[in-house]
Amino acid sequence: xxxxxxxxxxxxxxISCSKRINSNGSYYDFEVRCLGSELDGSVTLESxxxxxxxxxxxxxxxxxxxxxxxxxxxxxxxxxxxxxxxxSEITRKNNVEFFATFFADKGPFxxxxxxxxxxxxxxxxxxxxxxxxxxxxxxxVNVNVLEIKILMKKNKLI
Length: 158
Description:
Elements: H1 2-17, E1 33-37, E2 42-51, H2 54-72, E3 76-77, H3 89-94, H4 96-102, E4 113-115, H5 120-125, E5 128-130, E6 135-144, H6 145-154
Parallel strand pairs: 1-3
Antiparallel strand pairs: 1-2, 2-6, 4-6, 5-6
């Protein structure tokens, strides 16, 4: 009987000390947040992305940052960022093909976004949440708003 209690106690202790994966942490949606604006017409944003691995999540975070600048405006964080969207909802719906091409994987949106902290230390220690299938990454990015506005005017979208 003593052996049974001792084995049970040891088993419970081992199970309770094991590392657990947060099963719902990566399903929480974070909004893009303004960290500041630069004199060259770009803004520094904190963006989150979800993906199967680091690269997918990082690319999705870049897409989310550019999408927020274009379609919803930056509502969270520092007041240095423009709170208004560049493109109206009507324009977005009327030009679905243009934006589908613009936001394609390895698409033109990458010309307007730059990851601020791509040092190896930040790749390792970057805030992240994992679930069984999905990783979520926080990435600090610079989005060149001035160049995006020039592109939108060139394509007669604003």
